[in-house]
From TrEMBL:
Keywords: Membrane, Transmembrane, Transmembrane helix. This is DUF998 domain-containing protein. Signal peptide: none annotated. The chain crosses the membrane at residues 21-42, 62-80, 92-109, 129-155, 167-187, 199-217. It comes from Paracoccus haeundaensis.
Length: 234
């Protein structure tokens, strides 16, 4: 009995650890866009064209610090033990997202002339910009995989799981559509044409809120949302 109690305690602690990491990842996802929007409202400075553009602003420390914190939490996330031969796993996708978001923070987007970061100096401005864009794409792709593949695994054993899966899928497709539209804006030059309304910033915010929502739901910190989805489906 003592051994069974010890095993159960370890399992409970593991579950609580998973929940804490998921909640932290979700909270950081909500925090960054809201902090940048608050800065734009409270200080006499127009909204920047993208979230990444805030690297070249007084909010640089908030931008970099939040992304590195996300990288740390994602790297620490083990998830569930995969089956033999399985390669799309919680741990693999979390590590991919962690490395990608760290690169987004450490290799900034194109900006005004000034001192370069260490990685920028090594890679050069052109390659640095490419690394930043690719890393951002991989980050959101990994989080879309969490929403559409990993989070929805398991038996649908009740209305709460069904509602959660619906939220995850909405979040996953929101990420994909938002990032796809950003790619379209860049490919067509509409990001410059429509720069006045900041489409890239708003689409990045939508994708970020989507992944934050999915992790918050997975961490059981948005239960009112889950209950609302259950009620709406009746």
């Amino acid at each position: 009995m003592d051994d069974d109690g010890g095993v159960q305690k370890v399992r409970n602690e593991l579950v609580l650890s998973f929940l804490a990491v998921r909640r932290a990842i979700g909270a950081l996802g909500f925090f960054l866009p809201l902090a940048l929007l608050a800065y734009a409202v409270l200080w006499p400075e127009p909204l920047r064209t993208s979230i990444s553009a805030y690297y070249y602003s007084p909010m640089r420390e908030v931008f970099v610090g939040t992304l590195i914190a996300q990288a740390v939490f994602l790297w620490s996330y083990e998830g569930f033990r995969p089956d033999a031969g399985e390669w799309i796993t919680d741990k693999a996708m979390a590590r991919l997202a962690a490395v990608s978001i760290a690169l987004v923070a450490l290799v900034p987007t194109d900006g005004p002339d000034g001192p370069c970061t260490a990685l920028e100096c090594i890679a050069g401005p052109g390659l640095s910009a490419l690394i930043h864009v690719v890393a951002a794409g991989l980050f959101f792709a990994a989080l879309a995989v969490f929403c559409l593949v990993l989070f929805v695994r398991g038996t649908v054993d009740g209305p709460e799981k069904a509602a959660s899966n619906r939220i995850y899928r909405i979040c996953g497709w929101t990420i994909i559509v938002s990032i796809g539209l950003i790619g379209l804006l860049f490919a067509t030059g509409l990001d410059d044409t429509l720069a006045r309304v900041r489409p890239v910033f708003w689409l990045e915010t939508a994708a970020t809120f989507a992944f934050a929502t999915s992790w918050a739901v997975k961490g059981d910190s948005l239960r009112p949302l889950t209950r609302a989805v259950i009620a709406a489906s009746r």
